[in-house]
Structure of Phenylalanine--tRNA ligase alpha subunit:
Amino acid sequence: MNLQERLEELKAQGLKAIKDSKKLKEINDIRVKLLGKKGQITEVLRGMRDLPKEERPKIGVMANRVRDELTNAISNRQDEIEIQKVAQKLEAEKIDVTLPGVPVKAGQPHVLSQIIDEIEKLFLGLGFQIVEGPEVEEDHYNFEMLNLPPDHPARDMQDTFYITDKTLMRTQTSPVQARTLEKHDFSKGPLKMISPGKVYRRDTDDATHSHQFHQVEGLVVGENITMANLKGTLQLVAKTIFGEDREIRLRPSYFPFTEPSAEVDVSCFKCGGKGCSVCKQSGWIEVLGAGMVHPNVLKMAGVDPETYGGFAFGLGPDRFAMLKYGVDDIREFYLNDLRFLSQFSQKG
Ligand code: DAH
């Protein structure tokens, strides 16, 4: 076979192999085999040394043309394969935007957060500030500043978890009263605040007890604040949470930090006051504690009880939610069972 025939053969074989190639790697191998330094075409060109001088240009021109043709064919095939690859990828990743979407399951605030949010909204509307206090609290604020000195018997009802002798998990949100009173500048106007948060008691968990639960503390101190202001404010709370038609009544009670103190009942939202199983036939349900701030509490916080006075209250969002929704076990709020929690959808 002479060089001319050899070139024709290489060209035909090469073009066929290029046409049949399916992958970029394959085509690269073909390029190396034909056109590389040790490739077949290069070999032919080298063979020209043995030709008579006059034949060399003809074969040279031919060899160059074959090399160009193969180079072009390789580059075209490479482009084709790349385009095919992209087309395949697009096909594989095709999405049908007209298909119905997969619904996203939206969450919702916890039922206790819902109650607290409602109370916060009400009090923000009344011009109160919302104050937070520490859950790890000093004995000083949790008890002493609230008129419960170290040996006060009322401490027994609020045993808790102690961090040190002087530091404990707060048993009530009332210490935030003392903390805020100490800081308040009365020349700028009365103090009106609520403080929602978690509290702790050394109780064994059962249907009505939880070692951790919630309270919302309320405090108004200024000039000429009366018990009528307290009653009007709590009436609004009862109506907001339990319904427009609710009434409240105050019964005498005892708290060390208020004098007089009251237990506050709301007219039964189930029977409207006639008497039913929810209100134990009394027509009333006890919902919170309140009273007029004890002069000692004001004095200890550096506030003059001759000039300033006010009221305070403490309510339990857990108890509110249990009454409002007929939940018979406080532990449900803390088990994170979606079957329970999703019943309190804000939409429905
Ligand atoms: N701190 C009381 C408790 O945990 C609740 C309470 C009662 C708060 C009367 C008050 C109040 O501010 O005036 O039992």
User: Anything to note?
Assistant: The mean pLDDT is 93. The beta strands are 129-130, 136-138, 167-169, 191-200, 212-222, 248-255, 258-267, 284-293, 309-315. The pocket of 3,4-dihydroxyphenylalanine is lined by residues 172, 174, 217, 255, 258, 289-291, 312-314 (CB under 6 Å). DSSP finds eleven helices and nine strands in the chain.
